[in-house]
Write a structure and sequence with these properties.
Layout: H1 7-14, H2 21-38, H3 45-54, H4 58-66, H5 70-89, H6 100-109, H7 113-135, H8 137-144, H9 151-164, H10 167-197, H11 216-225
Helix pairs in contact: 2-7, 3-5, 7-8, 9-10, 10-11
Length: about 230
């Protein structure tokens, strides 16, 4: 497959061969969406209508807070809160059922502007991954060289591959995905075990060799949760 506007981002995501490539893909899309909404896009009426309607989840509120642009976030919150009040709690209708407000709030609680943009982008990039896997030997080799695949994205890839990947390559693909999870799992077991062993009094002292275990807890949590 010749490089195109679709394949270039996939190659850029997979080339580092560090961590879970699908986590990197998700992070890239999330960061772009957050930068977009916290920039000039927040003043675009059609974008503001969507953010007012959908709101944001806790994960993406945290990402926006981390950008230190508190005024932009305050403006988004102002219009979102006002829209909630106007469209749900101040709007009166003689035909509104007893649970109507609760159902509307439930819909808002389940929505997030950044999640929706990320999911849209992921669905298209993942399909390109399958297309490249089926058509490029070089990409199949690159995929198999990844450092690991987290359990969550293993589940997603194997599940979607049943409908999105050529049957000729699916068995091989599922096997490679399983091997990547096992490789990541084995490395983390080793590092977490070493971390625990370093608290044995026999391993203390200024020359204690922690190896790669100091951040083993954080890496294990990310492996298990993608966060």
């Amino acid at each position: 497959m010749r490089e195109s506007i679709l394949t270039i981002p996939i190659n850029e995501i997979f080339e580092p061969e560090s961590g879970c490539p699908i986590c990197r893909m998700r992070d890239m899309l999330e960061n772009r969406a957050v930068e977009y909404i916290m920039g000039s896009a927040m003043m675009e009426p059609d974008v503001r209508i969507e953010t007012n309607r959908q709101g944001f989840c806790k994960t993406h509120f945290d990402k926006m807070l981390a950008m230190k642009n508190r005024l932009s976030l305050a403006l988004l919150l102002q219009s979102h809160l006002m829209e909630l009040d106007k469209s749900i709690f101040s709007k009166k209708s003689m035909f509104e059922g007893i649970n109507a407000k609760q159902k509307k709030i439930s819909a808002v609680n389940k929505n997030c502007f950044v999640c929706s943009k990320t999911e849209w982008g992921m669905s298209r990039l993942i399909q390109t991954v399958f297309d490249m896997y089926a058509q490029e030997r070089e990409f199949r080799e690159l995929f198999s060289r990844q450092e690991m695949l987290c359990p969550n994205h293993y589940d997603m890839l194997v599940s979607v591959s049943a409908q999105s990947l050529d049957k000729k390559y699916r068995s091989e693909f599922v096997k490679v995905c399983s091997l990547l999870v096992k490789k990541g799992l084995g490395a983390l077991i080793e590092d977490v075990t070493r971390y625990c062993n370093m608290y044995d009094y026999r391993n203390t002292g200024k020359d204690a060799d922690w190896g790669n275990s100091r951040d083993a807890i954080e890496r294990s949590i990310r492996f298990l949760t993608t966060r």
